[in-house]
Design goal:
The complex is a heterodimer of chains A (559) and B (188). Chain A contains 17 helices and 13 strands. Chain A has helices at residues 3-12, 17-24, 32-47, 62-89, 148-157, 163-171, 187-199, 204-207, 212-232, 237-246, 258-261, 289-297, 321-325, 327-330, 384-389, 400-415, 429-432, and strands spanning 106-109, 300-312, 316-317, 339-355, 360-382, 396-399, 435-461, 468-486, 490-493, 502-514, 520-530, 542-543, 547-558. The longest helix of chain A is centred in the first third of the chain and has 28 residues, at 62-89. Chain A folds into two domains: 66-110 and 298-558, Porin; 159-261, no CATH class. With 559 residues, chain A is an alpha+beta fold. Helices cover 32% and strands 27% of the residues of chain A. Chain A starts with a helix and ends with a strand. Chain B is built from eight helices and no strands. Chain B is globular. Chain B folds into two domains: 2-85, Orthogonal Bundle (Rna Polymerase Sigma Factor, Chain: A), CATH 1.10.1740; 89-187, Arc Repressor Mutant, subunit A (Orthogonal Bundle). In chain B, α6 (127-138) packs across α8 (154-173). The chains are: A alpha+beta (559), B mainly alpha (188). At the A-B interface, α2, α3, α5, α7 and α8 of A face α1, α2, α3, α4 and α5 of B. Chain B: One of its GO terms (molecular function) is sigma factor activity.
């Protein structure tokens, strides 16, 4: 190729007839799903008004959107961290008054009125949420109704040197040779040709399919078109300036039109073939629609969330504990029970999901759960002959729950022929003979569980493709036990063999998601997560079946 | 012109039947237009969908100062460019050697090159070259206009267009229909 020739073409941009003409006539029927999607979006925009929570314009810019997303995530994490810390400060164990080896637990007689051992934790509930100071109003305004007469008159007032107006003026025989020159010498014939084409186009094929109300409007339009053509020849430079400033779209989305408004409008149909294909038979799609639609709907997202809630391990001590406790429990005359109460918990989770089709999605991730609970357990007191030696008082040495855990540890150690430890003292019968578990004296102690969690859940969208969507969630939650801290001094880890390293739970709930932009959304979900199996080993003296409930707040980024 | 007026007025009234008629009349051409800019067919459908939603929402801004089809094309082109702007492919420089030598399967029985064949050729171009070639050679924009539209230097627009021509020429020359020495320059 000659470089000089090429540069000349580059400079003057002679329209490439071959390529242009080929594509001017090319048409390919889109799949039916395109119109379905358009219709759905039109229905949405007509039916719902969404409050733009994250603003528009500059606020919607990508850097600021990222910054807001990061800020929201940090804020959620800080709130979670603050709530956890507040909870730990108000632990019931802070109200210890009894001396002895179990100094970290509060001991109180079992009485009708409750002591304030757990009331401190309720202070954490006084979290005040700040509402936004300003109410955000919808930006959607109803478009002004424009009658056909208004439209044409306003159009005529703003007529510029657009070639179409020239063609109209010619055809109405009102041209007095004052047509404005065009910018590009190649444009004039093009526009004139196009206008002729438009006039002789088979418009009846459309009109005959229209309702009578539309047809009646055409008579009014014909009269107005005459007026418009007369006004066209009176176009002045002032009108052109006005038109240039007034033709810009008014809505936000219309801003993209502005990039092309400065250039003259041309239809490049200079060649000999001057027909417009109005209708074209449907063509077969290039590939099966089923596979395309499946591929199209698969949207992915990543999310980060924090879920404050309540966690109850549902602790129980096995009946076999009675054997280990010998006559101690039976001698009290009452069935000795261990009860647990739910307390504050918080779960952090990072995950990802994929939208399989319009309604179904699958998501997974990894999380961390810090679950706090309160245990009420019968305390162990010295037997009567031992009491006599100690100032005639009940001396609390331990409690049923802690002993059950420690006994489980001992059994584990004995089974593995581990060396003797300090815990062996607990299993010494001579030691037991000195103590009894008294249901009259209950101990309250904290029980803090930590789990790593791997949820796998499916979601069913009740409001697909809506800005405010709602989905039902359900799935399996794998709880990986990390440790449990009983009181302040007994720490049981996964290696100790008391708790199952991995246990399963179900997760179910509903989630609202507000998609403020194409990429970001905020979600609010209510979740209930009961265990499917015991969280402890079968040989353990303690049984747990944790259940957690909570409200999850999250931010999502959609790819 | 008359039926265009009826279509526009019907769309202004948000008459769904008329909106459908407007779609059926122009969607075929506009779909090919989308596919010239966006290679992925799913993305092209999305662009067409977005463009028509904009058309219906902003039909009030159309004042019959130009043919309706030209106005619709502008919206589709702008929507496609908006989609492409996310990747800014025209800022990437692609070596001619990097182009895949695989040619689209053309129907050799055709006496002339049909649009599907040419569309495949265009879609095989790197995105930057493809965009500039579409705007310059087919839409008829000048390089200063393209540079403003894509926010690139005028020289970049020229070099991308030059590269596009070279790549298309190579592809045409390696086509069997030009194996007899028939020059392919006539198509470019």
């Amino acid at each position: 190729m000659n470089t000089g020739t090429e540069m000349n073409e580059l400079e003057k941009n002679t329209p490439d007839d071959f390529w242009r003409k080929t594509f001017d006539e090319a048409a390919e029927t889109p799949p039916p799903r395109v119109w379905d999607a358009i219709e759905r979006r039109l229905d949405e925009s007509e039916g719902t008004k969404i409050l733009p929570l994250w603003g528009s314009g500059l606020v919607m810019s990508r850097p600021l959107g990222w910054a807001m997303g990061v800020a929201a995530t940090v804020a959620l994490l800080l709130v979670g961290w603050w709530l956890v810390n507040t909870e730990s400060v108000n632990q019931p164990t802070a109200q210890l008054h009894q001396p002895g080896p179990a100094a970290n637990v509060a001991v109180r007689p079992l009485a009708p009125e409750k002591t304030a051992t757990a009331s401190g934790s309720e202070g954490a509930g006084n979290v005040r949420s700040n509402q936004p100071a300003e109410a955000v109003a919808s930006v959607d305004k109803p478009a002004p109704q424009i009658t056909p007469a208004q439209t044409l008159v306003s159009s005529a007032k703003k007529l510029s040197n657009k070639p179409l107006n020239e063609s109209i003026a010619r055809n109405e025989d009102t041209v007095n040779k004052t047509i404005q020159p065009v910018n590009n010498a190649g444009d004039l014939p093009t526009q004139l040709m196009v206008s002729r084409n438009l006039r002789r186009s088979p418009s009846s094929s459309v009109i005959t399919q229209l309702p009578p109300s539309i047809l009646s409007a055409t008579h009014e339009r014909a009269a107005l078109e005459n007026r418009m053509a007369h006004m066209a020849v009176q176009t002045s430079a002032a009108f052109r300036d006005q038109a240039a400033s007034s033709t810009a779209p008014t809505a936000t989305d219309a801003a993209i039109f502005e990039q092309l408004t400065g250039r003259p409008l041309r239809l490049r149909t200079v060649g000999p073939i001057q027909r417009i294909v109005w209708f074209r038979p449907a063509e077969l799609p290039m590939e099966p629609e089923v596979s395309k639609s499946q591929r199209k709907a698969r949207e992915m997202w990543a999310s980060a969330s924090v879920m404050p809630g309540a966690f109850n391990p549902m602790v129980a001590v096995k009946s076999t504990q009675a054997a280990y406790a010998n006559t101690l429990v039976a001698s009290t005359g009452n069935q000795s029970t261990v009860t647990s109460r739910a307390n504050f918990s918080v779960a952090y989770q990072a995950g990802a999901g994929v939208q399989l089709n319009e309604h179904w999605s699958v998501e997974s991730g990894i999380g961390y759960l810090a679950g706090h609970s309160t245990i009420e357990t019968p305390a162990q007191v010295a037997s009567s002959n031992y009491i006599g030696a100690v100032a005639n008082q009940n001396v609390v040495t331990s409690n049923l729950y802690v002993d059950a855990i420690q006994h489980s540890l001992v059994n584990k150690a004995a089974a593995s022929s581990a060396p003797q430890t300090a815990l062996d003292l607990v299993s010494n019968n001579s030691f037991y003979s000195q103590y009894r578990y008294s249901s009259q004296t209950q101990e309250v102690l904290t029980n803090n569980y930590q789990y790593m969690q791997v949820p796998v859940q499916v979601g069913y969208q009740l409001r697909p493709r809506k800005r405010l969507s709602m989905a039902l969630l359900g799935g399996i939650l794998t709880n990986i036990f990390v440790k449990n801290t009983v009181g302040n001094d007994v720490v049981v880890t996964a290696k100790d063999g008391v708790y199952r390293p991995v246990s399963l739970a179900t997760t179910m709930g509903a989630r609202f998601r507000y998609r403020s932009t194409g990429k970001w959304s905020a979600s609010l979900a209510g979740l209930y997560q009961p265990s499917l199996e015991f969280g402890t080993q079968t040989e353990s003296q303690v049984q747990t079946r944790p259940t957690s409930t909570g409200m999850s707040f999250g931010v999502d980024y959609h790819f | 012109m008359q039926d265009e007026y009826v279509l526009v007025e019907g769309c202004r009234r948000q008459d769904r039947i008329v909106q459908r008629q407007l779609y059926e009349r122009f969607a075929g051409k506009l779909f090919v237009l989308c596919k010239r800019y966006i290679k992925d067919p799913d993305e092209a459908e999305d662009v067409l969908q977005d463009a028509f939603v904009k058309i219906y929402r902003h039909i009030d801004s159309f004042r019959f100062e130009c043919p309706l089809e030209a106005w619709l094309k502008r919206i589709v082109i702008n929507t496609a460019l908006k989609q492409l702007r996310k990747e800014k492919p025209w800022e990437q420089t692609v070596d001619v050697q990097d182009m895949a030598p695989v040619l689209p399967q053309a129907d050799e029985s055709l006496p002339a090159l049909n649009y599907q064949y040419l569309l495949q050729l265009i879609q095989e171009l790197p995105p930057g070259c493809r965009t500039v070639f579409n705007l310059y050679a087919i839409e008829g924009y000048s390089h200063p206009e393209i540079s403003e539209l894509l926010d690139i230097a005028e020289g970049t627009s020229k070099s991308q267009y030059s590269r596009a021509r070279m790549l298309l020429q190579q592809k045409l020359q390696s086509d069997k229909r030009f194996a007899d020495g028939r020059p392919a320059e006539g198509y470019l």
